[in-house]
Amino acid sequence: MFTARNSKVVILLICIAALISACSKDKTTEPTAEANPIQMVDVSAIIEQVAPPEYVAPVGSPSTIDSAWLYGDFPLLEGVFGSHEPEALYTNINDFKLSYDILSSTLLVDETGAIILGSYVDSHLVEMENGEIMMHFTAVASALDGPTPVPASAQGVIGTEIDVDYLITVDVTEMPGSIVKIGFTLNDTLQTIAQWDEGTSGDDTQTRLVYSSLDLRDSTFSFRGQGYCQHPINDQWLNGDRFCWAYIITSQANADFSYRMSYTSESTDWSFRYCFLGGGNKDTEFAMKYRPYQPVDATVCDSTWMKDQVFGPNYSEGSGLLTDYDEFLNDDLLFPRSYVPSEMIDNPWAE
């Protein structure tokens, strides 16, 4: 069966971030205004301050918590707050850090603080699995004249439009066919980053759309995204199976978090949808809900496998009641099938 654990999702941006984060600024081709590095806030670090910590399987005596959350080959918490599965929160946070690296290490501003538009060209020696390789890239910064419409299939998660002022297009000579687009806004009160990328990993076709908005006055944030991975039809994937995910995590001024996530596994012969809800305060107590659906478009969950749990700090057993967390666990918040992509995500900035 094709599940998240079989997925070969390896985002090409790992290489891109590595080469850009260490690039030199003296090769910027244009313009010639007095240039300074852009100053940004690492929103990933703020998300990590509010979200439960990255899940690591416990060692020692069994917990009183339902073992499905903590143990086995694929504990539920690994898929929610881990860093190894493509749908997991920390996987997506770590991938998103690449966007931040691209912007904070590449963009320059003039003496008034305005972003310098134009092409940033450089090269960098990158350590690969099979040795070192010189990567050559161009990052083109251009101004946008209005909000960017969001593709219809992503509007349930991202919203109807992305209000960003600049577009950064990254092209890597050694990665023909890959596309990376990053929308960006930075002012006295707001920092917004939106990224769409498309490429291949082996024979898989992949695409993502990610959106982050941070209020610089009180650290209120919204972090949301979708991902799609399509396996080809071959001896391993006889039906061209696909794996897709979507998530939203929000917080108000470094207080409680609210998290919604769903992922799907689909083939010609079977399909599943797995939904999670959660919320509360990671330092005191929070609650989680898990609901599986089969087939993927079922409207009633498989009650045999559904789970509910109240957690204390570091995934200890909580003492509160599930009813204390109705605002986070209401079934109306579960992602419907339409919120998880079932086809490649369109480029919002397509020409």
Describe the structure.
With 351 residues, this protein is an alpha+beta fold. Helices cover 15% and strands 36% of the residues. It is built from seven helices and 16 strands. The strands form three sheets. The chain has a twelve-stranded antiparallel sheet with strand order 3-4-7-8-9-10-11-12-13-14-15-16. It has a two-stranded antiparallel sheet with strand order 1-2. Strand 8 (179-186) and strand 9 form a beta hairpin.
Brief descriptors of the model:
globular, 15% helix, two-stranded antiparallel sheet, alpha+beta, 351 residues, twelve-stranded antiparallel sheet
Strand numbers in spatial order across the main sheet:
3-4-7-8-9-10-11-12-13-14-15-16
Unreliable stretches covering 5 or more consecutive residues: 1-29
On the 0-100 scale, what is the average pLDDT?
A: 85
Using only C-alpha atoms, the radius of gyration works out to 21 Å
Number of strands: 16
Structural class: alpha+beta
The largest sheet, given as strand count, sense and whether it forms a barrel, is: 12 strands, antiparallel
The total of helices stands at 7
**Gap between N and C termini, in Å?**
38 Å
Query: Which percent range describes the beta-strand content?
Result: 35-45%
One letter per element, helices H and strands E, the order comes to HEHHHHEEEEHEEEEEEEEEEEH
Apparent shape? globular
Helix percent band: 10-25%
